[in-house]
Description:
Layout: E1 4-7, E2 12-16, E3 19-21, H1 23-37, E4 43-47, E5 51-54, H2 56-71, E6 75-79, H3 85-92, H4 95-98, E7 101-102, H5 105-113
Parallel strand pairs: 2-4, 3-5, 4-6, 6-7
Antiparallel strand pairs: 1-2
Helix pairs in contact: 1-2
Amino acid sequence: MSISHTDVGPNLRRIVIPGRLDIQGTDSVAAKLEELVAAPKKGVVVDLSMLQFLASIGIRALITSAKTVQQRGGKMALVIDSNSSVRMSLEATGVDDLIPIFDSVNDAERAVLA
């Protein structure tokens, strides 16, 4: 599985994670995700709109990443389609109380830079 990113100006990083964040998928991207969220950016948007499955180990990686961003004074948000099973999993576990979830990249980017 791959993970990609784009720096959108000096204060914003967009990370895209497609595929599955099950044990194998999370193991393959966890180190890269940690590296990408450690960059000194004010805002980090993680686009999960192409993610097909999210296991508890993937949820843990997202929470850990959000804490890393928050500890340096930044904000992290997720982008997930409103009808996605991934979004339902995050809402059912209360992760949306810790990491804001948006339907669009533009809304998420505005929120993390506010």
